[in-house]
Amino acid sequence: MEKVPRSLVLGATPFFCLLLLTLLYTADIGSREVPSSQWKKTDSGASRIEHQHDHLHILMKRLLKGENQTQLEATGFACHYDIHTEVCVFNRPVRIDTLTMTVYAPFNQGMSQASQIIRPYPKEDDKSTMRRISSVQILQGNISPPPPCEYTHNVPAVVFSSGASSGNIFHEISELIIPLFITSRHFQSRLRFIVPDFDIRFISKYKKIFSHLSSYEVINPAANVSVHCFPGAVVGLHYHDNLAIKTMDVPEGYSMLDFRQFVTESYNLKIRDSSQMEKPTLVLISRKNKRAFMNEDQMVTMIKELGFRVIIAQPDMTANLDKFAEVVNSCSVLVGAHGAGITNAVFLQKGAVLVQVVGLGLESLSNITYGTPAIGMGLNYMDYKIEPEESSLISLYGKDHPVIVDPESIASKGYEAVKDVYLVKQNFNIDVVRFRKTLVNALGLLGRSAPLG
């Protein structure tokens, strides 16, 4: 038998040792969802567990501010409250019964038992929405005895409800996806989501987001009735504003620019900068009713004359988010009337232009919902304000009606009045000559010029 040179064996030894150590480390930090009857804490792992415990304390503390941080360190439990949301944080072991959605925090046995109820969805100021959200009960203090663990995890839990998801991408991104990013991104995927009011359509629609926020499968309480034990937990999600992140209030100082980068990575979007495009592409969000473009064909003809490749995004195209994200990422300019479809701007490439067509009576709402957020996302933002002659409302009410000449008088009656008139009843007949000027300016923002003539 041929003899292997000693130098080769010795040279390979460090490589195999390194490989073995890597495999052992990977196995050690992997998901440990095992029945508690099989779970044992060994002396050799004590120092590692202590290190993980200290690291978890740091991560949990970043979700709170001021006195709440002090309370968390002293008691292991603290809550943040504002007009939008409640977020409760535990930096010590908890047990979560997914049958009753009860969080047991038995680590303060010296205090009498206390109970509180949280509805883990960030729209506390919207009573109609919150009525659809199931409650989570928190029990702490002298719990004798707490329910035994059936499954033990070595990563913390984040509990939130998807019960208000309705297929509207604006509400889904603004009220759930961005709050999930704010609340959980700094855990670097080392967490487990528990989702009461589990909506499989929502979870499936944003599966790429969930797989980048967590390395573990989402727990549906209705399908996984057990007592799960975690080293810590967060109940509820932080929310800042419409499509917005307040950098000073976020762990790691994340911003909407960081969120757009996270989305780009989650969906593996290839085009990172509009300068990579040889020919400018414009995506036109097409609506069939309510704020629809009645002369869409004329608009498309004019847009093509400016040198754009045009993609008309019909509702069936926008329904498949994974594919439509790539479509939007391929464009230099996104055009749409005020509405949920503009939320797809989160998939735009760096340097792209968002053009929002602002209907009569919708200027303030349009700016709050998409104008200001677009700037926060680092996009070039433009709006095209509809003139009375371009609105279908003029034929419904007449040119001298307060709906046309005094939209503020309608707005003073509240959001429902604005919605009934300006959001529901209004369509647009765009002045293509005037709109052409807006798109010429958009080309200028891209460093391009319009064809002569």
Question: Topology of this protein?
Answer:
Layout: H1 6-29, E1 34-35, H2 46-61, H3 67-75, E2 77-81, E3 86-90, E4 94-97, E5 102-105, E6 114-118, H4 127-130, E7 136-140, E8 151-152, E9 157-159, H5 169-184, E10 192-194, H6 200-205, H7 207-213, E11 227-230, E12 233-235, H8 256-266, E13 281-285, H9 296-305, E14 309-313, H10 315-318, H11 321-329, E15 333-337, E16 353-358, H12 363-376, E17 380-385, H13 393-397, H14 402-405, H15 407-411, H16 415-423, H17 432-445
Parallel strand pairs: 5-7, 8-11, 9-10, 9-12, 13-14, 13-15, 15-16, 16-17
Antiparallel strand pairs: 1-8, 2-3, 3-12, 4-5, 4-11, 6-7
Question: Can you describe what's shown?
Answer:
It is a single chain. The chain has helices at 6-29, 46-61, 67-75, 127-130, 169-184, 200-205, 207-213, 256-266, 296-305, 315-318, 321-329, 363-376, 393-397, 402-405, 407-411, 415-423, 432-445; strands at residues 34-35, 77-81, 86-90, 94-97, 102-105, 114-118, 136-140, 151-152, 157-159, 192-194, 227-230, 233-235, 281-285, 309-313, 333-337, 353-358, 380-385. The chain is of the alpha/beta class and 453 residues long. Helix 9 (296-305) crosses helix 17 (432-445). 39% of the residues are buried.
